[in-house]
Amino acid sequence: MKSAKKALVTAMAAAVAFSSTVCVSAADETIALTLWGAEEDQDLLKELVGKFEEAYSDQKFDIQIGVESESTAKDTILTDVEAAADVFAFASDQIYDLQNAGALADLSEYDEAFQAVAGKSLDDVKAANSESSVEAATIDGDMYAFPMAGDNSYFLYYDSSVVSPEDAASWDSLLAAAEEGGKQVGMVLASGWYNAGFFYGAGFTTDLNDDGTTAMDWNGTSPDGYTGVQVTEAMLNIAGNSAFMAIADGDTSNQIASGDLCAVVSGTWDAQAAQEAFGDGYAATKLPSFTIGEDQVQMKSAFGYKFVGVNAYSENIGWAAVLAEFLTNEEAQQARFEAREIGPTNKVVVESDAVKENLAISAAIEQSEFGVIQRVGGKYWDPAKTFGENIAQGKFAADDEEGIQKALDTLVEGITAPVE
User: Do 286 and 335 sit in the same domain of this protein?
Assistant: First the structure.
């Protein structure tokens, strides 16, 4: 493949040629593009590519579609960036590694060519999608991907015959309603993906350093004025409530089916299980708030989007950008929701009746306003899991501030350790 700089010149020239009604050279040339997407998306991608070719019927295309999971896209692409697809789907937590490696085209550099061919600007794309999804696709003010989907997170399912919407708003009232109804509220604590939601809610952060280590501040005081000790105390108070069930990671579906729960923290993958268990009472909403002192602190969540990016080394980078946007526009997101019930980021699709009637997707979208892109290194997961296990098992006392502080110091020390 050509260098990114040379590809820009090619893209601009192709865009100008395409926009001219008297120039036929661009149309005579066959534009070759390779597209990677998830196995589950192959049929949809074929359909969308067909519509793309119809939309630009004056141009000849040779678009090859390959299978590559969004979860493994980064590893495959970084093996050989120049040999990777021109257009590819990937999980949002991979964007920094891909951008640092120079694999992602800075879309703002191609905005003029994009406007000439597609008839819309990047500002139009940004305005069409949720603010949080655009923010996640942006690095240092520049956009590096098109938002495609946004529902990879967790929220609260509940049985409205036991728990009212008002009860579901806070952990205190939620647990009280569960106890009164002879039920429990379930959540996985032994996972750094789930338990981080408490710390993120209180203003704490995690970040990934250039050397692969994790930056973390949970053993100190957050910008919001809360301490890590206070957050841990709140978690211990929740976990120590008889109406709370600490669920083993991977066992949520089974516990929902057990009939013991009236509410559970999970994601869209458990929608069917929750609907079957809660029946006519099936409901879903954002995560509840938790208590620190006299404050109600809204729980946040680790939130993931799915993006479509453009290879910075694509020989047809202008057309690649046009295709990437086409695969993520309003019509494409509507089609993706209808085909797979994938949560959209496009504002029009989000407001559609079909999406609003899907309680799980609606809850995921509601929670997205409190979502955090979780950037952590490999040393994060085991200590965070152990910390959550200790909370679930009550190994810390909620009134032992010194012991909790030591546990937090140990947690942060292990997670921020140098990569060996």
Answer: no
The tokens for 46 are: 């074929």
Tokens of 173: 């009232």
**What is the C-alpha to C-alpha distance for residues 258 and 267, in angstroms, rounded to an integer?**
18
Residue 352 is assigned to a structural domain of this protein: no
Phi/psi at 372 (nearest 5 deg)? -130, 130
Long-range pairs, 248-255, Cβ under 8 A, ≥24:
248/188, 248/190, 249/188, 249/190, 249/191, 249/194, 249/385, 252/186, 252/188, 255/186
Q: What is the CB-side half-sphere exposure of residue 206 using CA atoms within 13 A? A: 30
User: Does 219 map to a domain?
Assistant: yes
When pLDDT is averaged across residues 325-331 and rounded to a whole number, the result is: 98
Do 204 and 90 sit in the same domain of this protein?
no
Domain that holds residue 187: 154-302+368-415
Same-domain status, 322 and 194? no
Residue 159 belongs to a domain with what CATH number?
Answer: 3.40.190.10
Query: What would you measure as the largest C-alpha separation in the chain, in angstroms?
Result: 78
Domain co-membership, 102 together with 59: yes
Q: What would the pLDDT profile of 180-218 be if each residue is shown by its tens digit?
A: 999 999 999 999 999 999 999 999 999 989 888 999 999
Cα→Cα distances 10→55, 125, 147, 174, Å = 21, 23, 25, 59
Distance CA 228, CA 404 (A): 9
Token reading at 29: 């040339």
Cα separation, 13 vs 317, in Å, equals: 11
Q: 3-class SS at 17? A: helix
Cα–Cα dist 14/7, whole Å: 10
Q: Which of 153-167, 201-215, 320-334 has the lowest average pLDDT? A: 201-215
For tokens 């939620």, what's the residue? 174
Total number of domains constituting the chain: 2
Q: Which residues pair with 298 in a beta bridge?
A: 289
Considering the domain architecture, whether residues 200 and 325 belong to the same structural domain is answered as no
Q: Show the tokens assigned to 239.
A: 């976990």
- Smallest Cα–Cα separation from 133: which of 318, 279, 303, 345? 345
